[in-house]
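Work Package 4 report. The design task specified in the project plan requires that, given a folded chain encoded as structure tokens, an amino acid be chosen for each position. We show below one input record used in the internal validation round.
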């Protein structure tokens, strides 16, 4: 069944957990879609795990659109959400709506995600009025890493916790269909989840959220620069890839590959005429 913003909200009503992963290319999107994942996020994390940037701040609209188009070609049942990159919406409501529209029209996303709390509610409202579904994102917002002074858990003291609750309620009121809670204490995330009628998607926010999301390279052991505390590594695909690559190199150097079964034949009579 096709996942939509409606089915996401129905999942919360039925107390069914929502599953999401990041995706950045056709092949992985197709595999994930076939697995039954509910949603795929073309995250600005692609800057770090795909393009080798030091952070997400350098990711452009063109980067996101390019990768979203590839994911959209591979996934037919998952809800495809595209991240709005840094400075694509902070400058004005107009820019926010135009760039959100590009992700839908050019990238073929079905929803967009943007980071921020009270300061982006006017953008969320305007984008929703343009008939574009919006997923919010609060807590640790990587595009604000320079303000936070690093990747740190948010909402640990009373005033910060109250602010995050206030932001979540405001984002729902602005019209968002769901909200990502990143790196907030599990008990705080549960309070927010219970207060909202829209689903919460956690990443480092505990089991009390309505759903979970991870960067797929993290959970498959394919990104070794660092491993966040909240990541569970379900398989070490990175190690298996290294083993396969090493074996390939050895077999090519030893003349083992390609073998006869990997080669094409021609009649010997024809070969004789070529000498």
């Amino acid at each position: 069944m096709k996942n939509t913003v409606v089915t996401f909200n129905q999942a919360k009503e039925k107390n069914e957990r929502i599953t999401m992963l990041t995706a950045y290319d056709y092949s992985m999107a197709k595999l994930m879609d076939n697995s039954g994942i509910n949603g795929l996020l073309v995250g600005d994390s692609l800057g770090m795990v795909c393009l080798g940037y030091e952070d997400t701040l350098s990711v452009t609209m063109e980067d996101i659109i390019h990768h979203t188009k590839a994911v959209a070609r591979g996934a037919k049942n998952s809800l495809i959400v595209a991240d709005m990159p840094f400075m694509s919406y902070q400058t004005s409501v107009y820019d926010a709506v135009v760039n959100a529209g590009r992700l839908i029209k050019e990238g073929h996303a079905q929803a967009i995600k943007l980071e921020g709390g009270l300061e982006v509610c006017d953008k969320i409202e305007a984008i929703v009025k343009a008939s574009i579904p919006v997923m919010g994102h609060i807590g640790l917002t990587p595009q604000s890493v320079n303000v936070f002074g690093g990747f740190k858990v948010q909402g640990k003291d009373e005033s910060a916790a109250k602010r995050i609750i206030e932001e979540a309620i405001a984002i729902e009121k602005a019209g968002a269909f769901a909200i990502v809670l990143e790196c907030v204490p599990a008990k705080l995330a549960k309070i927010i989840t219970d207060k909202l009628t829209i689903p919460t998607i956690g990443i480092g926010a505990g089991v009390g959220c309505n759903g979970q999301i991870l960067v797929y390279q993290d959970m498959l052991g394919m990104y070794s620069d660092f491993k966040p505390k909240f990541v569970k590594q379900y398989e070490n695909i990175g190690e298996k890839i290294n083993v396969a690559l090493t074996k390939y190199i050895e077999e090519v150097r030893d003349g083992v590959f390609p073998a006869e079964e990997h080669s094409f034949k021609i009649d010997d009579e024809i070969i004789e005429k070529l000498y």
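The two ends are 61 Å apart (CA to CA). Validation will be extended to a larger panel in the next phase.
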